[in-house]
Amino acid sequence: MLRIEPSGAALGAEIVGVDLSKTLDDATFDAIVAAYHEHEVVFFRGQTLTPEQHIAFSRRFGELELHVRADRCRPGYPELFVVSNVIENGKPIGSQDAGLFWHSDLCYMAEPSRGSIFYAREVPIADDGRPLGDTLFASATAAYNALPDSTKQRIAGLKAVNSYEKGYYRDRKSGGRPPLTEEQKRRTPDIEHPVVRTHPFTGRQCLFVNEGYTSAIAGMDGPDGETLLNTLLEHATQQRFIYRHRWRVGDLLIWDNCSTQHLAVPDYELPRRRVMERATVRGSRPF
After folding, report:
1. Please, what is the end-to-end C-alpha distance for the chain in angstroms?
2. Catalytic residue among 74, 103, 114, 197
3. Per-residue pLDDT tens for 125-176?
């Protein structure tokens, strides 16, 4: 029987009693969606899923995105973006440097994704048995709610510039990336979105800026805009807004890209292997 166990942090909950390799009835799926909207990050332990089962479950949330980095998707499954440090035949099997800064997936698109559905196939383990490669999630809802009223009034109606190119070329642990192709640039021009976004399902207000891809406050050139943006970025990732997920093999975790941002913890390297696969649910234009 389905059971919800909140993490005790500002966001996050475990859903117990569900086998995602089976086709779920509508009532069970609706309960999962309700928990997802309430807790912003939900996860299931001990799942054994084929790529087809991962995709089928993910599609119940909506149409799936095909990632702009097709070279880092699972062969034969363009819906599954691979995050991994593994090298095979001299080539990486996935993105080696994904998530090394606070960000919200696809915030640089005209219609940012609704959510990401991440499955842990291999998790690096420390010599003492601890899992490595944790992910931090910050609640953009809690961050907005905690802003002073004066700041809420100041940022009401403002827009922020989100840039895929900014995030792509940030300093990376693993070194440089190949230059973006003209097709990739064409698909990801800079885009403006509201600084305060209304969640399309819950109606909650979310602080929709992040250090990875937000490059400026639109119409605020110079130090005033830079200071405001930096203040919001520092506020959004305070410890009181964060849930830290410690991965286990077989975890399937869903996060809300409207109401959260996340950060990978790169505390492992080969020969400790990490293999994760992400399906990304298409979203809607922010308002």
Report:
1. 37
2. 103
3. 999 999 999 999 999 999 999 999 999 999 999 999 999 888 777 645 445 5
pTM of the model: 0.93
Q: Side chain identity at 87, as an amino acid letter?
A: I
Residue 103 a catalytic site member: yes
Q: Which residue has the higher pLDDT, 257 or 1?
A: 257
Give the domains, in start order, of the chain with CATH numbers.
3-281 (3.60.130.10)
The answer to whether 177 and 131 have CB atoms below 8 angstroms apart is no
Q: Is 105 a catalytic residue?
A: yes
Q: How far is CA 65 from CA 19, 31, 94, 175, in A?
A: 24, 24, 17, 27
Average model confidence (pLDDT) across the chain: 93
Question: Could you say which of 67, 74, 97, 105 is catalytic?
Answer: 105
Tokens of residue 84, six digits? 């991994």
Q: What local confidence, expressed as pLDDT, does residue 177 receive?
A: 65
